[in-house]
Amino acid sequence: MSDRILALTLTSLDQDKAEDVVSINLRGKSSMADHMVVCSGRSTRQVAAISEKLVERLKAELDVACKVEGKGQGDWVLIDTGDVVVHVFRPEVREFYQLEKMWMTPAAQA
Length: 110
Prior knowledge:
- The chain is an alpha+beta fold.
- Helices cover 45% and strands 25% of the residues.
- The chain has a 5-stranded mixed beta sheet with strand order 1-2-5-4-3.
- The protein is globular and about 30 Å long.
């Protein structure tokens, strides 16, 4: 199921013009999820819209209920499907936290 969630997530992010989408395979690295996806939206409005549409699509197409944090501020929204964790950032916030660098292999960061 996690691969189906990941595929729908990546399609949804592409359709909603998310930028700099990075997918990280967490299998064998963490028990919290199989995949992490990190992306950016250009503004707080776009971050909120990307997040809302993704949650709607996951529920409608795969009947996946998501936990969502941070949508009210629109700087960083976390969407937890259980198998896939998605982080949608404004670019400045993403640069500050550099979340994906903690999980990527050194070769992937070069």
